[in-house]
Amino acid sequence: MMRELPEEVLNLDEKIIAFIRRGIDHQDSREFKRLALNVFELQFKYISIYRRYCEKRGINPENITSWEQIPALPTDVFKVMDLSMFPAQTVRTFMTSGTKRPEERGKVHYDEGGLRLMDATIYEAASAFLFPDKIRTTILIIAPSPETAPHMIMAYGMNRLKEYFGGARSRFLIGKERFEVQALVDELHCSEEDGTPVTVCGGSFGFVNFFDYCREKGLKFKLPAGSRSLDAGGFKGRSRGVEREEFLNSCEKFLRIKKDYCVNLLGMTEVSSQFYDNNLKNACKGLDIPKAKVNPPWTRTLTVDPDTLEPLSPGEEGLLRHVDLANRGTILAIQTDDLGRITPEGFEIFGRSKQDITRGCSLTIDEMTQIKQEG
Amino acid sequence: METIEIDAYYLPPDFRNQVKSFRIEVYQGERSMVRLKIPSVSRSLIDTLTDHLKASRRFYLARLPIEHIIDVLDEASRKWLDKSYPLRELALKAIPTITGFSREAVEASIDVEMESSLREDVWRALCSEIKNPLYLDDFQYSSELNGYSRAFGPELIVSIFSGNIPALPHLLFMRSLLVKAACLGKVAGGEPTFAPLYLKTIEEIDPEIAKSLAVLYWKGGEDDVEEAVFNQSDAVILFGGVEACQSLLPKIPRKVRTLIHGHKLGFGMIGRRRLTHQGLEELASAVAEDCSMFDQHACLAPHVYYLEKGGEVTPKEFCQALAKAMDALNIRMPRGKISPGEASVINQLRAQYEFRELGGEEIQLWASPRGTDWTVVYEKDPGTFLPSPLNRFIRLIGVEDIFQILPNLKSIGSYLQNAAVAIGDEREKEFIGRLGELGVARITSPGKMSIPSMMWHHDGISPLTHLLRWCDIEKKERIGGMGEKD
């Protein structure tokens, strides 16, 4: 199937992969810009509906000179439109979560080359931010496997982590029916006994449920030094800051993983690359840098005004917009509805902006369905 | 920068010294800062206050002739309509800072509410519901009964307000006074200042009446306070979302009459005969008014306007005219400030429509030149009722025939409320009849959606009658002391 992608696309993919493989310890902005404009050029050429969207805004590859000018695609458009560069070459489709109605879930299609780019980002970013000490751990995943959840991008990504970095006992712990909590308990005991460090990873809520279980059963583990946690997602609907502290305390209390070894990850179905917190990297390298989500060199993040969508200055709170070279197969620049701000080290994310909507004597479809279910 | 100190409460003049503990909440606007003074509310405060309100009512309000009460309400409305009235000016400074609504929108809201609360309207509202307002004062002869009847209001009404519309709580205090009930209102965190100011006006006019009225604020979910307040009440009126109402209902004793004004959805329908070149601009302005008033936060606001195809003006031509009118109105009465989330929802939805339009679907999008100030979307019938994300976002849907929309409306059943209807031919009567059957509670003309009269059966309920208890005398023999029928 690879042969069916046009030559110019394969060539560009090679260049992007080479750029990603250079790792995260450089800031080659010139090469980023060159590649970003190159990606835009091909997306403009091959994705006709995106081309018309750009043309309406008077933008084409000839008249822009920086990646900041590339029109961003709002995430919700994936709910109504196929925006892949080569729909016929789709080998994998990931879907957004958050609603039970399949027609309202965003769908992101990947061609073989796009998947290869994502694989490269997973390897490089995890090497830098999750395993800066190059230790091989048993990776225990509180998430379903790709076979169980073929459309869940987290399942795909965690599986790659397991393949690239995991020891022999690494495994997924959410089966078709349920969370295999006893298996997790057994693996953690096993690690305590044989001294192999563990990486517990999965959705943030999965951790919370596991901590509740530990509390109820009076379980506390003393995981070997070098053990760590990777949680992705967040705590939708709760105030920021507080729950993170609680989470870190629980990791220490129930797993004996110190907060330096608890890494949070921002991953999105619409963005191929992942954004890790830099705390474990800082701890391992002895760097005294404030914690932040860090943009690997093949990505950029900026904030925009929620109302006008115009770029804001660093430090100002706004909606996050990500530019990701690994998004070659869909759209390079993605406009999210996450609130955050740019810091000197990277960026901070505060949560979904939609959480704050409480005004108006109206009701959402969701509220109506709830009522219907309650009957 | 101007600092405005304002009370988020109202206590009767002879009760004020009983509250000693307050906190201050600060709202920072662009031009002014509002410092809200909020009293601490406890179960014991509720108990003593409600006793006080009931006693004041017994000694004064309950004995007042209805005519005097109407005079007071009329005078209050007139004061608020006077542009130089100091409390109006204070409200116009504070409310925009607290709510984000533009000053022009708050001004319009006050004018709309007060213009429909003058003597004539109040009197007609009473007559429409209870025929003879004097039933509220004493036993009156009723020829249907061939006897005498008198109506009694509750002792104490407790009302829980929602914060979406600035000048709405005054309506509840008016209704309470009309049935001679003491009233304790709980304002919403979103807009706690208008109700206290309105009661100050009542105090200016008749301080004895004001002794039966109070406004407090507490955080929803304080079980202790809420149980106390509901236990003391004879009637409860709830405004607000499904969740808020559902959490309160179990706390209300069964003997207490409860009225719920929950969330509702409005819409409009314009038939082909009314889509003509003549009057196009006026009609578009009227629809723009409906879609812009209170930035669609009122339950009366339209989420969708249906346009019937086959008229002299096509639905898309009408949308074009509406877009122009929305823009003009936004200059005259700017959209309020909205949260990042509200803005993001609009931008995401606009993008979906834009891409669908580019993809060749029968869709067209008109949007404010900058930001999310207003959005007009034309699309063909999606076969379901799509609620608007509000804040001046209106969908216009082209339909082949007016009756085609009825199945869509059926799906939202009990949430139906307000409809603007302009058909202009003989089908109008049948159409309106069908809307009534489906649950629509108010049918009006485009441009009038946000201006219900005092006489309206609010959410399909007779709001005054519902609060009253009747005593009938059915006796053949003459009653000592009772006047003969005249």
Short description:
Chain A has 375 residues and is an alpha/beta fold.
Task: Give descriptors for this structure.
heterodimer; A: 375 residues; alpha/beta; six-stranded mixed β-sheet; 10 helices; B: alpha/beta; Aldehyde Dehydrogenase, Chain A, domain 1; Aldehyde Dehydrogenase, Chain A, domain 2; 2 domains; five-stranded parallel β-sheet; 37% helix; 21% strand; globular
Write the layout of secondary structure elements.
The complex is a heterodimer of chains A (about 375) and B (about 475).
Chain A: H1 7-21, H2 29-46, H3 48-56, E1 73-74, E2 90-95, E3 107-111, H4 112-129, E4 138-144, H5 153-165, E5 171-174, H6 181-194, E6 198-203, H7 204-217, E7 228-232, H8 242-255, E8 262-268, E9 271-276, H9 279-285, E10 299-304, E11 318-324, E12 333-342, E13 347-352, H10 365-374
Parallel strand pairs in A: 1-12, 4-5, 4-6, 6-7, 7-8
Antiparallel strand pairs in A: 2-3, 8-9, 10-11, 11-12, 12-13
Helix pairs in contact in A: 1-2, 1-4, 2-3, 4-5, 7-8
Chain B: E1 2-7, E2 22-28, E3 32-39, H1 43-59, H2 66-81, H3 86-99, H4 103-115, H5 119-130, E4 140-142, E5 147-152, E6 156-160, H6 169-178, E7 182-186, H7 194-205, H8 207-210, E8 213-216, H9 223-232, E9 235-239, H10 242-248, E10 257-261, E11 265-270, H11 280-292, E12 302-308, H12 315-332, H13 340-358, E13 363-367, E14 375-380, E15 393-399, H14 406-410, E16 416-422, H15 427-438, E17 442-444, E18 469-473
Parallel strand pairs in B: 1-3, 6-7, 6-9, 7-8, 9-10, 11-12, 11-16, 12-15, 14-15, 16-17
Antiparallel strand pairs in B: 2-3, 4-5, 5-18, 13-14
Helix pairs in contact in B: 1-9, 2-4, 2-7, 3-4, 3-7, 11-12
Tell me about the largest β-sheet of chain B: 7 strands, mixed
Strand content of chain A: 15-25%
Name the poorly predicted regions of chain A: 356-375
Mean pLDDT of chain A: 89
Give the rounded overall mean pLDDT of chain B.
93
What portion of residues of chain B is helical?
A: 25-40%
Q: What do we call the CATH homologous superfamily of the largest domain in chain B? A: Aldehyde Dehydrogenase, Chain A, domain 1
What is the tally of helical segments of chain B?
A: 15
CATH class of the largest domain in chain B: Alpha Beta
Strand proportion of chain B, as a percent range, falls in 15-25%
- Overall 3D shape of chain A: globular
| Counted beta strands of chain B | 18
The profile of the biggest β sheet of chain A is: 6 strands, mixed
N-C termini distance of chain A: 50 Å
Number of helices of chain A: 10
Q: Identify the quaternary structure here.
A: heterodimer
The CATH topology annotation of the largest domain in chain B reads as: Aldehyde Dehydrogenase, Chain A, domain 1
Shape of chain B: globular
The counted number of beta strands of chain A is 13
